[in-house]
Structures are given as structure tokens and as C-alpha cells.
Design a protein that fits this description.
single chain; about 325 residues; alpha/beta; Rossmann fold; 7-stranded parallel β-sheet; two-stranded parallel ribbon; globular
């Protein structure tokens, strides 16, 4: 059993892609887990459907401080704050909602309950923005370039104020790009996997920009360690493998691993005007402070993810499957 077994742990955003994996792992470890979600509905939180009856569900919008009273009733030992408006592209047209959720919402979660043993704020690598060096370290001055990253950085600053002025036990984690089962096709890896499996034409930019991608189980390892390691308190820590791959090479790899017959039209689309050409993590601090290092290689994680999506699409398209029948309602 994990050292977190028996703890009361609250996860805002606990039914989302990344944190549904943490939610499931902590339940399996014997922790008493609560999630904050806007709707107390298994349909709206399908990623945790298999453990739904083992969770404390707090129905609340984090923008509404009064609605967060359920956190006080639960009295968590540990809080993971991951709830956010998290789509970079659409944040430009929904900036008011983005700032309301990511900045004000984070302040609300911090202010609604103060008697925690540890608060882990889930920030993002997006706060780095444009930097003179492609390997992003925690010592760099953030230069957020989207409403999403501005809002997330505002949440960081509020955490740092609480740490510095009020000496609250807070850890700030900056995860880099994640992938794995349950991710929506709004992200590049599931989009490419689904496109390749279904044989549709793949259209992309030239793909010269590079990113790192972290298998979700590796990130969950780091999130667990952030709640355990005493010297993590008061720290800002990158969570990422530091291994780059160009988007063009990523598409070709997914095409190969899926055995796809899809036509590749790499270079058919223009680059985004705010493109960051290289982005990867300096992860020495995660290794030094948390003792963290990736356990699942990128290729193995990609193969697991492809297998999951292949099974998902098979079930979804089978008119006799439970998943297909459920989607009729």
C-alpha cells in the first residue's frame, strides 16, 4: 500500500484526462479520495466510472467560493488543484472565462480551506512561453503567451504569495505535454492515432517544431512523490522527460506503429503565428528533490496508447457493444 493510503485526498479536476489516472491510483492505494466536479454525474465524469462509488463527489464550480464548502466538510489532508480551462488555442476567444477559472478559481480553492498538510498546484510548461534557450528550467522568467498560460501563471503567483507570506505547505508542479489513455483528440497524439487507425488523410504543418511527450503514468508517479517528499514543500518543479521529437517525426512514427494506410500530407497546413519551435524540460530538480525519473519509455507508452485507442474505437463502432449502446441515450 502507498504511503498515501488512509489519507483524505482532494483532487480538483480529478475526472479529467491526467488526473483520472491519479484518482484511480490513489483509490487503489487505499486513500479516501474526493473529486471536485461541476456535475455530480457519472456520465459527465466517465473516465472514473469504474471507481465512481468509491469517490466522494463534491459538486462545485471553483469560480464560486460558496460552492466549495464541501471541501471544508471533507477536511482533506492533501489537495491537488488541477481543475482549469486548459485549451490553449480557444483561450484567445474565451479569455474572460479562462482567467476566471484559472486565476480566480485557483485563489478560491486556496482560500476555501486552510488546514491542509500539503497543497499541490498543477501549473503548466506553457507558462515559459518564448525563451532564449529551448530547455526550460525553473529559474527562467516565465513569459506566458496565451490567456490560458497567463491564468495558470496567476494561480502560481497566488500560491507563491501564500507560501512566502503565510508559510503554507505548497508545491508547484509544471508538467510538460502528457499523453495516454482517455485523452481527447484535441491533443496531437490522440488526434493522429485516431486519424491513422481510421485511415483518414493526415494533414499537418511541416512539423519542424519539437516537443516532449510524457506518458501519463510517469507524470502520476511525480504527482504522488510531490505529496510525499518533505523537501518538495515551497518548490517549483518541472515534470518532464526532456526528450524532444519533432511533430513531423511523431506523425511518421504513429503512422508506422498503427500500420496505417492513411495518406500523409505533412506541410499542408501553415504554422501557428505564435509557434514555439522547441520546448523541453530541464528535469534535474524533479530527480534531485522528488527522486523522479520516467519509468515508461516514450515508445512503450505510445504503443500502450495506440492499443487503448484501437480497443476504444472497436468498442465505439460495434453496434452491439455496451459503449455503443450507452452513447444512444
Amino acid at each position: 500500500m502507498s504511503i498515501l493510503g488512509g489519507k483524505r485526498i482532494l483532487i480538483t479536476g480529478g475526472s479529467g484526462f491526467i488526473f483520472s489516472h491519479l484518482t484511480r491510483r490513489l483509490v487503489q492505494a487505499g486513500a479516501e479520495v474526493a473529486i471536485v466536479t461541476r456535475y455530480n454525474s457519472i456520465i459527465d465524469n466517465v473516465r472514473v466510472a469504474d471507481i465512481w462509488n468509491q469517490l466522494h463527489v463534491i459538486e462545485a464550480d471553483i469560480r464560486d467560493l460558496d460552492a466549495l464548502r464541501g471541501i471544508k466538510d471533507f477536511k482533506p489532508h492533501i489537495i491537488y488543484h488541477a481543475a482549469a480551462y486548459n485549451h490553449v488555442g480557444s483561450s484567445f476567444t474565451k479569455y474572460n472565462e479562462v482567467l476566471d477559472v484559472n486565476a480566480k478559481g485557483s485563489a478560491n480553492v486556496l482560500e476555501c480551506y486552510d488546514d491542509f498538510e500539503r497543497f499541490i498546484y498543477i501549473s503548466t510548461s506553457e507558462i515559459y512561453g518564448y525563451q532564449s534557450q529551448p530547455i526550460f528550467s525553473e529559474t527562467m522568467n516565465p513569459q506566458p503567451i496565451s490567456p490560458y498560460s497567463v491564468g495558470k501563471y496567476a494561480g502560481e503567483l497566488y500560491c507563491r504569495m501564500k507560501m512566502d507570506i503565510m508559510k503554507r505547505p505548497i508545491v508547484i508542479i509544471r508538467p510538460f505535454n502528457a499523453f495516454g489513455p482517455y485523452q481527447t483528440r484535441r491533443a496531437v497524439i490522440p488526434e493522429m492515432i485516431e486519424t491513422c487507425i481510421t485511415g483518414k488523410t493526415v494533414r499537418s504543418t511541416e512539423g519542424r517544431q519539437t516537443r516532449e511527450f510524457n506518458y501519463v503514468d510517469n507524470l502520476v508517479d511525480g504527482f504522488e512523490l510531490a505529496a510525499i517528499k518533505e523537501n518538495a514543500i515551497g518548490q517549483i518543479i518541472n515534470l518532464g522527460c526532456g526528450e524532444e521529437i519533432s511533430i513531423g517525426d511523431l506523425i511518421r512514427l504513429i503512422h508506422k506503429e498503427t500500420g496505417s494506410q492513411s495518406r500523409l500530407e505533412i506541410g499542408a497546413l501553415p504554422h501557428r503565428p505564435t509557434e514555439i519551435w522547441r520546448m523541453c524540460a530541464d528535469w534535474h530538480k524533479a530527480n534531485d528533490i522528488l527522486g523522479w525519473q520516467p519509468q515508461v519509455t516514450f515508445l512503450e507508452g505510445l504503443r500502450r496508447t495506440i492499443a487503448w485507442y484501437r480497443e476504444f474505437l472497436t468498442q465505439f463502432n460495434d453496434k452491439h457493444s455496451g459503449l455503443h449502446q450507452l452513447c444512444r441515450f
